[in-house]
């Protein structure tokens, strides 16, 4: 019995020492066969116990089984170590103790952010946000806004016409809207005064692109119709918008301008954020950037929508949205918004 005990002890020491020096899976498999296989030294030792008395057999058998369990455990641990080492060498190992990689989360486009902020400002002044179709009838896009076919202002709105049968009996044609103003007429046809709305949306004009112009851009239209509305109401509303959005330190300029659907008309400009009035490429050297056209709603537009222009009056304005973040953040090229460059978009 002492000899067998000594053999078990020597077998354990030999197995552990040999296992500690292994570095390849092939060597580990050879070790498993040599110490745990059907013809291994441990198996032969267990077979030799059959000739011993039952008491000795029970004691030595228990010691042999403990050794077998231990060798199986250290074998699995070594196998795991070698497998992890292979993964690390191949660049596939994952350390579960490291913090997880952040999941890339998107956010609103800067134009959408500004559009939402402007809508909220006007909503706070009592305006309702409505939307209209991007594919529009030319009657709503032009005629109902006091822009007949021969009107020279149509030259400034080069149009994307659509191949569609004219609407009978009026003979209307379809196009991609050139401004959000058609919703002025659509709303006044359906809602009796008082009316206070803003209309955000994309518009389309067939023109060359440069640092301040695109063939597709975003506008927000504003309309207020009620009894006794004057030019003072228009200027007060737009001054308040500029104060809330740009801050009280940004200069605002009003100048007279012409738009067929308002009379009188005006344009509002904001001091250039890049040069602060000194003149640069963005503002064309003037120190100002026009952001909107506005004016009192033309009586013909009111009458066309079924509103008595002798009783009601109103004002309207249209803002080019892309120019607002350009002013706000000092961006000098409108094309950056739609370039798809994440280096630019992630800044907002």
What does this structure look like?
- The structure is a single chain.
- With 348 residues, this protein is an alpha+beta fold.
- It folds into two domains: 2-90, no CATH class; 110-345, 2-Layer Sandwich (BirA Bifunctional Protein, domain 2).
- It is built from eleven helices and nine strands.
- Strands 1-4-5-9-8-7-6 form a seven-stranded mixed sheet, sandwiched between helices.
- Helix 2 (25-36) runs antiparallel to helix 4 (54-89).
- The protein is rod-shaped and about 125 Å long.
- The model has no long low-confidence stretch (mean pLDDT 83).
Topology:
Layout: H1 2-20, H2 25-36, H3 41-48, H4 54-89, H5 110-123, E1 128-129, E2 135-137, H6 138-141, E3 174-176, H7 182-190, E4 195-204, E5 216-226, H8 231-246, E6 252-257, E7 262-271, E8 288-297, H9 299-304, E9 313-320, H10 323-329, H11 342-345
Parallel strand pairs: 1-4
Antiparallel strand pairs: 2-3, 4-5, 5-9, 6-7, 7-8, 8-9
Supply database-style keywords.
348 residues, alpha+beta, BirA Bifunctional Protein, domain 2, two-stranded antiparallel ribbon, 11 helices
Task: Compose a concise summary of this entry.
The protein has 348 residues and is of the alpha+beta class. It has helices at 2-20, 25-36, 41-48, 54-89, 110-123, 138-141, 182-190, 231-246, 299-304, 323-329, 342-345; strands at residues 128-129, 135-137, 174-176, 195-204, 216-226, 252-257, 262-271, 288-297, 313-320.
Q: Helical segment tally?
A: 11
- Low-confidence stretches at least 5 residues in length (pLDDT < 50)? none
Q: What multimeric state do the chains show?
A: single chain
Output the helix-strand order.
HHHHHEEHEHEEHEEEHEHH
How much of the sequence lies in strands comes to 15-25%
What is the makeup of the main sheet?
Answer: 7 strands, mixed
**SS class:** alpha+beta
Rounded radius of gyration (Å): 41 Å
> What's the number of structural domains?
2
The CATH topology of the largest domain is BirA Bifunctional Protein, domain 2
The CATH superfamily title of the largest domain: Bira Bifunctional Protein, Domain 2
User: Which CATH architecture of the largest domain is right?
Assistant: 2-Layer Sandwich
Helix content: 25-40%
- Averaged pLDDT, please? 83
Count of DSSP strands = 9
């Amino acid at each position: 019995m002492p000899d067998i005990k000594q053999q078990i002890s020597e077998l354990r020491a030999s197995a552990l020492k040999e296992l500690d020096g292994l570095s390849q899976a092939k060597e580990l498999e050879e070790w498993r066969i040599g110490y745990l296989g059907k013809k291994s030294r441990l198996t032969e030792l267990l077979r030799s116990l059959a000739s011993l008395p039952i008491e000795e057999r029970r004691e030595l058998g228990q010691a042999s089984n403990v050794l077998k369990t231990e060798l199986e455990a250290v074998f699995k641990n070594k196998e795991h170590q070698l497998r992890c080492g292979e993964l690390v060498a191949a660049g596939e190992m994952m350390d579960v103790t490291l913090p997880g990689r952040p999941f890339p989360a998107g956010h609103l486009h800067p134009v959408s952010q500004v559009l939402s902020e402007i809508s909220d400002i006007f909503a706070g002044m009592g305006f309702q946000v409505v939307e209209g179709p991007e594919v529009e009838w030319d009657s709503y896009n032009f005629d109902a806004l006091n822009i007949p076919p021969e009107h020279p202002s149509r030259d400034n709105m080069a149009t994307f016409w659509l191949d569609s049968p004219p609407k009978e009996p009026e003979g209307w044609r379809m196009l991609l809207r050139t401004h959000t103003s058609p919703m002025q007429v659509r709303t006044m046809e359906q809602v009796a005064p008082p009316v206070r709305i803003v209309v955000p949306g994309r518009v389309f004009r067939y023109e060359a692109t440069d640092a301040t112009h695109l063939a597709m851009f975003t506008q927000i239209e504003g309309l207020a119709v009620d009894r006794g509305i004057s030019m003072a109401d228009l200027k007060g509303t737009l001054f308040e918008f500029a104060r809330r959005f740009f801050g009280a330190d940004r200069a605002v300029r009003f100048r007279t301008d012409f738009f067929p659907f308002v009379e009188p008309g005006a344009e509002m400009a904001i001091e250039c954020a890049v040069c602060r009035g000194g003149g640069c490429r963005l503002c064309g050297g003037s120190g100002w950037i026009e952001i909107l056209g506005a004016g009192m709603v033309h009586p013909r537009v009111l009458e066309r929508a079924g509103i008595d222009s002798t009783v009601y009056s109103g004002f309207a304005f249209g803002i080019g949205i892309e120019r607002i973040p350009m002013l706000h953040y000092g961006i000098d090229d409108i094309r950056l918004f739609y370039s798809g460059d994440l280096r630019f978009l992630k800044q907002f």
